[in-house]
Amino acid sequence: MAKPNSRENPTSPTNFIKEVETRLKLQFIDDGTGDLTTTIGPEDIFHYMYAIFHSPTYRQRYAEFLKIDFPRLPLTSDKTLFQQLADLGKQLVTIHLMVADIDTNSCYPIEGDNLVDKITYKNEKVYINKTQYFDNVKENAWQFHIGGYQVCHKWFKDRKGRKLSYTAHGHKLNFSYLRKVGKKKTLPTLHKSLNYARVQYMMIANITSIS
Q1: Dihedral Cα 35, 40, 41, 42, nearest 10 deg
Q2: For residue 115, what is the DSSP state?
Q3: Phi and psi (nearest 5°) for 40?
Q4: Structural domain includes residue 173
């Protein structure tokens, strides 16, 4: 079998890297991250991809295409935009891996057996049984979907009949995270002063000038 010629395949890794280098005028390094001034690394590209593929604008614009094929990655020639997206993607990765330090005023005020029974959302409270609940949970966090799943509801549904525990990745941290990612506002530009955990969807959703 003849060996594929990467020059004839625009989607080959070699040609993809060359295209990135050409567009951004950065030199590719083989490991880690670059300084995004003169160099770019595989992790920078991964973080950029992560931001793009989680952008609500991207998902809405290409919704029909994404039903039948793999996502296509638009490449920007704007170095500043790439840096901003790569930074957002990096933050989003840490949040999804649950290693981000997220402040929250969500609370779990009532003691009990912590048994997940009937899940009910009412008045910014998520009840896991008749008496125990998570407080200060905004509706847009509770209604947040990924694909066809309502994330918060599914998380609890998968634990029905089990007792929740206070671990590093326990229910309080999970809900703190989910509450924050559900907070969306209309932002005309990128604001570095925004809360770290809120950045992921608020900012990415407003980046529409990907060239």
Answers
A1: 140
A2: B
A3: -140, 140
A4: yes
Determine the Cα angle at 197 with ends 191 and 202, to 5°: 50
* Domain-located, residue 177: yes
Whether 75 and 143 map to the same domain: the answer is: no
Alpha-carbon span 108 to 133, nearest angstrom: 6
Q: Supply the range of the domain harboring residue 58.
A: 6-102+195-204
In a domain, 14, yes or no: yes
Pull the structure tokens for residue 185.
Answer: 């506002």
Tell me the pTM.
0.63
Write the pLDDT tens digit of every residue in 55-80.
888 888 888 988 899 889 999 999 99
pLDDT tens per residue across span 87-127: 989 988 887 787 777 676 778 888 889 899 999 999 999 99
Token output for 170: 């326990």
Residue type, 15: N
**Sequence-separated (6 or more) residues with CB below 8 Å from residue 41:** 28, 29, 30, 31, 32, 33, 34
